[in-house]
Design brief:
It comes from Candidatus Enterocloster faecavium. This is Twitching motility protein PilT. The protein is of the alpha+beta class. It has one domain (about 5-60). The chain is built from three helices and two strands; from the N terminus they run E-H-H-E-H. The N and C termini lie far apart (about 40 Å).
Amino acid sequence: QDHDLETMYLDSFLKLACLDGEDISQTYMALKEMGEKHHVNFVISISMDADELPDCVKGDVIISL
């Protein structure tokens, strides 16, 4: 087995996951739990204003443009 995957970068996440205009809380928490379980960091690009983000996401924001 390959155990060297540490970080996954997901660009244009809302578009790719068909979540534009949807609540992303459940999907975000599922990714977070999956990452913790498998020791993988997810870095996701979300095109959304910071004040529109669910509270569960705000603490993990790296940069907001």
